[in-house]
Amino acid sequence: MQQNKIKNNPLVKLENAGVYRDTRWLVRGVSFELYRNNIVTLIGPNGSGKTTTGKLILNILEPDEGRISLNTNRIAYVPQKLSINSTVPLRVSDFMSLTEHISQSKIIEKLKLTGVEKLYNNNLIDLSGGEFQRVLLARAIAKNPDLLILDEPVQGVDFQGEIKLYKLIKEILDEINCGILLISHDLHFVMSSTDHVICLNNHVCCSGSPRDVAQNSSYIELFGEQAASTFSVYSHHHDHLHNQDGSISK
Amino acid sequence: MFDDFFIRALIAGVGIAIVTGPIGCFVVWRRLAYYGDTLAHSGLLGVTLGYVLGFNMSFTVFVISAIVAFLLLFLQKRTKLTGDALLGLLAHSSLAIGLVIIAVLTSIRIDLMGLLFGDILSVSTNDIMLIWGGGSVILLILFFIWKYLFAGTIDYDLAKAEGMNPDVSNYIFTILIAGIIAISIKMIGVLLITGLLLIPPAMSRNFSISPKEMVIFSIIGGVMSVVIGLFGSLEFNTPSGPTIIVVSMLLFILSLFFKRGYNNLRIKQI
Questions:
Q1: Cβ contacts of residue B43 below 8 Å, gap of 6+?
Q2: In a designed cystine with B87, which of A98, A223, B38, B39 is the match (CB 3.0 to 4.6 A)?
Q3: Per-residue pLDDT tens for B119-169?
Q4: DSSP letters along chain B, please?
């Protein structure tokens, strides 16, 4: 992985990025890099600027301060909120090809991955929240992106499905060699499968490997003692070490 | 069998319905009903200016509609007012300005009823060429921006994130609505154009399962409304615009009864 990083430019690089709206900074001073085959996770309380940071990277919002460089245009996005106007008759299959034509066999294959291939012909507005979330994820994967931005991708998904989908997200990373930015409340997953965690609270509170972040005092302050201890339960074996700045050493 | 003017009206009306079908679907999907209305109201000002300046009516209507559309975008950025308030402001101010100009300039005689409700008698060969020529251009442009416009219609953020340039397609679509109003205002009238934009897609939604189906059924519904409406208008000596809209409304009511059966059929088939 070390070699990968030297060879490749980062997919995304934020330098001191910030967004100012209505007399306050939604988020400020965010700097990090996201490389291929890496998962960077943003955690933080409500209104801490996680989604805003995602939208900055996606060019939906312009930074009022700092710089964002994006080194790919093969991007797929699973937004936190997506409300479909019921006057649009839209089947799952139509939605899968929304921003890029995708063959029928590939659509079915990806829907199978997220466990919703039976919904192929269903109307999008008739899906439950969890089903819709699975379709959103399948659509994003089907695009074979370089960069995948997932904003609370498993919200509303049942517990069994949640574990499966998180496992799937890990598998996607290996399969299509993309970089993933994950915005999640799910500390369990974050702590077990992420390479780099950024804890936001309108600014970067702390960042680093999950292990480092879990022990950081500002993280404990934000999420409480119990959240910090979840890490120990899900701790996994590492063959390398993550440094505070996101680099990796053997 | 029929008089020339009637044949001309049929050709013109069918042309308009073919274009209002797909454009109307996007108007409905994007919740732009009042937006179309506003542009149509400003059409009266466009028509008046056409008379005053001696330009082609469709040209001035198009220009005024486009100006109003961009004024709206400008005001949305400049003020804290919401879209509906701004639309009302623009619709009624431009309508009022148009009416005031008509009243002041007593030298010009404008058939106000004809403008408000459409007049089949007035359709000339030039109008037909404008409708079919302009309509083809509108549909061609829509065809090319379809993917981008549709993605932006479903979700702005998603479209923007995945490189679909929703802003550009939104602007182009704004111009297309101005265009369709410009070419159809003479035939359908200021007050009822939005009806032809909205009602056939509304009818079509009742038994469509995909966006493309909805567009096709909207065109069919629109063409049926125009043809039946024009024959009705001839038969009962009623104004063409309102008669066409009444027919489309009747088709909408009929579609309510077909709704369920059709949907079940389609889903079983798959």
A1: B61, B64, B65, B181, B182, B185, B190, B193
A2: B38
A3: 766 788 999 999 999 999 999 999 999 999 999 999 999 999 999 999 999
A4: ---HHHHHHHHHHHHHHHHHHHHHHHHHHTT-HHHHHHHHHHHHHHHHHHHHHT--HHHHHHHHHHHHHHHHHHHHHHSS--HHHHHHHHHHHHHHHHHHHHHH-TTS---HHHHHH--GGG--HHHHHHHHHHHHHHHHHHHHHHHHHHHHHH-HHHHHHTT--HHHHHHHHHHHHHHHHHHHHHHH-TTTHHHHHHHHHHHHHTT-SSHHHHHHHHHHHHHHHHHHHHHHHHHHT--HHHHHHHHHHHHHHHHHHHHHHHHHHHHHH-
B30 interaction partners in chain A (CB closer than 8 Å):
85
| Nearest chain B alpha carbon to A118 | B270
Measured between CB atoms, which of A73, A75, A99 is closest to B151?
A: A99
Backbone φ and ψ for B57, nearest 5 degrees, come out as -60, -45
CA distance B40 to chain A (A): 23
Q: Does A95 touch chain B (CB under 8 A)?
A: yes
pLDDT per position as a tens digit, A37-63: 899 999 888 888 999 999 999 999 999
Cβ neighbours of residue A63 closer than 8 Å, sequence gap 6 or more: A17, A18, A19, A56
The gap between the terminal CA atoms of chain A, to the nearest Å, is: 10
Q: Write out chain A residues lying below 8 Å of B210, CB-based.
A: 89-91, 94
User: What is the 8-class DSSP label of residue A149?
Assistant: E
Task: Provide the pairing of β-strand A12-21 with A65-70.
Answer: antiparallel
Give B160's contacts in chain A (Cβ within 8 Å): 58-60
**b/e for B32-58, b at 16 or more Cβ within 10 A?**
bbebbbbbbbbbbbbbbbbbeeeeebb
Q: Cβ of B62: how many Cβ atoms within 10 Å? A: 23
Asked if B177 and B128 count as a contact pair (C-beta separation under 8 A), the reply is no
Q: pTM here?
A: 0.86
User: Distance (Å) from the C-alpha of residue A158 to the closest C-alpha of chain B?
Assistant: 25
**Residue B134 in contact with residue B179, Cβ under 8 Å?**
yes
Q: Three-state SS across B139-171?
A: HHHHHHHHHHHHHHHHCHHHHHHCCCCHHHHHH
DSSP state for residue A9 in the 8-state scheme: P
CA dihedral A94, A100, A106, A110 (to 10 degrees): -80
